[in-house]
Q: What sequence folds into this?
């Protein structure tokens, strides 16, 4: 169609303005802010890389980073295994398929706030129903109000509960796209279900798995609300995650420059993680340009 | 798969566990909102409890502002959804039907911004929002929510519009329609599933979002999730019934919307994520 006309630009303008105004330009500003010292009602003063040095020398930053990395890895890979299991189960045919998909999808509609609330109730030390049930089975409850490991464990459970629908849908739609002939051919060759899964399902599904994992890592890495609503990072800053550390640095301790430096580090982390996916998207898009 | 399982019983156990995992927390919220406070932390938990609306009455009396907060959520969600659908449909049409180096670069930018964590953006936005006098207004949340889902929406719409045959565009053009005519008479008629999917993604996000509401609103534009978070903060064990009531009111409309739009949502998520 017509080249050099203004029409396509008019069409994409609202989206581009939103993205530039709300995300693009503020991000550039954050990069500059990271090189300054600034706080509420105070003009930023250039300090070079000082903020990065301070952050990287802060043991609480490393603690938050470790907490985040551990929770993200456990959550994302645990969720992947669960979602894969459910997707394979569903692709094999289930009674009331639509209703069952609706069941798996349900937590997607629930707010983080409400999810934290109900899991907190269920797991409340001493009085929560699941705590009672675990005790009755002779198992220890998750004492998340005292133990950082238990608290982050509960954060992980809530996270998996809320995001399993996303991972499941990506894998399930990927599975449905695999041609049935592949499985029929494998069966004629006498392949076992496990061999079918390893030789057909996994390789064909790999692009969907990579996208699901990438998106989940990026989103889990931003985790804030669950931790904030459950422990506020306590006791004694032991359950902070990176986003919470950023929030406290900027909004509680009023160190905008330091918080901006953390933000830039988070951004770099996200970009590094997704380089391979961005390259693929970039090539795919410019191939048609 | 696509074979008879050796042990159908195991499959049914697995399905039962999946139901339990997904639905138990939601069932607890809704059913326990109808229970008297003493039946919420009792052990053994009474299976049956005569339903009563006492918690809803208490919610009305003790948190009168909650309904206004719910109204804020409704306003912000509607605004963000309309804005995002509007922007995404236009952009999806643009990226589906036009080609060019700079246009592709701008499409790549829409993908790139998905990697930017919202909390990072909040640092410069916080003073800017205050300076513009937009703190604690619907407008700031509407723009933020629409911006964070315009990218996914654009790609869902591009994938949807890519499937509308270009021959229809040409036919309309021959009939004398310009670009806007094609958009109105061809695209808008046929792209509804994509618009529903993009709309539900934004709506779920805007209705449930906590971080931006927490940072940018305090009273006038406070949304329901923020109000519930404050209730949790001030709750004693006797208040749990009220909390469950508030959570049910906040949760059920969105659950109904997600279930109604299920088909579009599943297709949209696959299109918007994988083909990005």
A:
């Amino acid at each position: 169609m017509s080249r050099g006309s203004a029409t396509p630009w008019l069409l994409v303008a609202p989206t581009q303005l939103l993205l530039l105004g709300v995300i693009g330009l503020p991000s550039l500003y954050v990069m500059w802010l990271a090189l300054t010292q600034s706080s509420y009602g105070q003009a930023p003063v250039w300090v070079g890389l000082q903020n990065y040095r301070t952050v990287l020398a802060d043991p609480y930053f490393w603690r938050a980073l470790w907490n985040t990395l551990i929770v993200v890895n456990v959550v994302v890979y645990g969720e992947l295994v669960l979602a894969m299991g459910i997707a394979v189960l569903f692709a094999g045919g289930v009674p009331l398929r639509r209703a069952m998909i609706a069941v798996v999808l349900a937590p997607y509609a629930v707010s983080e706030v409400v999810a934290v609330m109900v899991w907190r109730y269920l797991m409340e030390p001493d009085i929560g129903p699941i705590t009672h049930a675990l005790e009755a089975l002779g198992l220890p409850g998750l004492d998340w109000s005292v133990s950082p490991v238990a608290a982050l464990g509960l954060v992980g459970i809530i996270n998996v509960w809320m995001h399993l629908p996303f991972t499941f849908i990506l894998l399930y739609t990927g599975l449905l796209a695999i041609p049935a002939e592949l499985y029929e051919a494998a069966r004629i060759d006498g392949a076992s279900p496990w061999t079918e899964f390893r030789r057909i399902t996994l390789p064909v599904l790999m692009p969907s798995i990579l996208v699901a994992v990438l998106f989940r890592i990026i989103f889990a890495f931003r985790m804030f609300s669950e931790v904030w609503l459950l422990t506020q990072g306590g006791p004694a800053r032991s359950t902070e995650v990176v986003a919470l550390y950023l929030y406290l640095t900027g909004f509680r301790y009023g160190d905008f420059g330091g918080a901006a430096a953390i933000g830039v580090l988070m951004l770099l982390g996200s970009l590094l993680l997704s380089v391979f996916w961005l390259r693929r998207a970039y090539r795919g898009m410019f191939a048609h340009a | 798969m696509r074979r008879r399982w050796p042990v159908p019983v195991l499959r049914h156990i697995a399905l039962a566990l999946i139901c339990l995992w997904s639905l138990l927390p939601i069932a607890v919220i809704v059913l326990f909102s109808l229970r008297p406070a003493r039946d919420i932390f009792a052990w053994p938990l009474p299976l049956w409890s005569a339903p009563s609306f006492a918690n809803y009455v208490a919610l009305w009396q003790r948190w009168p502002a909650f309904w206004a907060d719910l109204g804020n959520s409704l306003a912000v969600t509607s605004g963000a959804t309309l804005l995002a659908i509007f922007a995404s449909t236009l952009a999806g049409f643009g990226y589906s039907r036009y080609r060019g180096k700079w246009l592709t670069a701008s499409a790549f930018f829409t993908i790139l911004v998905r990697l930017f964590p919202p909390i990072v953006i909040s640092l410069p936005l916080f003073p800017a929002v205050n300076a513009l006098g937009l703190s604690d207004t619907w407008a700031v949340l509407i723009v933020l929510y629409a911006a964070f889902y315009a990218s996914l929406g654009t790609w869902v719409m591009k994938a949807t519009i890519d499937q509308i045959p270009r021959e229809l565009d040409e036919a309309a053009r021959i009939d004398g329609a310009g670009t806007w005519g094609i958009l109105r008479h061809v695209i808008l008629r046929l792209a509804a599933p994509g618009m529903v999917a993009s709309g539900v993604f934004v709506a779920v996000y805007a209705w449930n979002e906590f971080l931006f509401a927490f940072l940018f609103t305090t009273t006038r534009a406070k949304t329901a999730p923020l109000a519930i978070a404050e209730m949790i903060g001030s709750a004693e064990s006797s208040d749990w019934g009220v909390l469950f009531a508030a959570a049910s009111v906040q949760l059920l409309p969105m659950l109904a919307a997600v279930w109604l739009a299920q088909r579009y949502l599943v297709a949209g998520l696959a299109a918007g994520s994988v083909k990005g």
